[in-house]
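Hello, quick one for you while I still have it in my head. Could you read through the record and tell me how the tokens relate to the sequence? No rush at all, and the record is pasted right below.
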Amino acid sequence: MTHARGAGTGPAGAEPGAVSSGNGTNGTNRTGGGVGTGGVGTGAVEISAAGLPSWLTPVADAVARVRPEQLSRFLPPDGGGRQSAVLILFGDGDRGPELLLIERSRALRSHAGQSSFPGGALDPEDGDPDGDGPVRAALREAEEETGLDPSGVQVFGVLPRLYIPVSGFVVTPVVGWWRRPTPVGVVDPAETARVFRVPLADFIDPANRATLAHPSGFLGPAFLVEGALVWGFTAGLIDKIVQFAGWEQPWDHDRKVPLA
């Protein structure tokens, strides 16, 4: 058994931190009053899969058709939970297709020291949580945490809302293509300890996959990449993306990694 430093966003599955379902919008080609590919502000939200690289086609197709029950049996509580959003940002780096992740500061109250997608709670200025608010929030938080220029991000889908019982967050995953990459790094060390990119090939490689053994008894998918143990909510989403895109390779589910 390999002992590794924990990094994730709560266990994904039937225990706290689960990937869950909700009433979010998925699909493409939606416009409204807000911000999409043009940066965080008051422009129109545009969600479009037009012009994506061919390797992202299976992801866009999966995002457009995924049903809540395919993600989890949990629903966000009626009228409860703190609305938030994350940005699942795909890029094309020196090592091929990649995902952007952050390591959260150990000083934070929720999910301290864990690896996750950029994101955070919706602010009032982000707008309607049932409308364009999650897209604005995901782009704004990504800019605040990593310094990326949101005008270079093409949002091509929004997954159903997910729930993290351990922290009470109702999370909308916003899926984007980094059409015009810009330099990224830690903006505020009090919030973010590290910003890093992980090749998709590393998430697909069976050698980097394991089952996280949580002290609560929960077992869930995990990835050992770039010196981090990615588990919980974040790993659950990545696991589903790899599955639904048809990229999954056989891996050893009996390989257990305890949360240190």
Residues 84 and 149 are 20 Å apart (CA to CA). The first strand starts at residue 6 and ends at 8. DSSP finds five helices and 15 strands in the chain. The helical segments are 57-65, 68-71, 133-146, 200-204, 232-244.
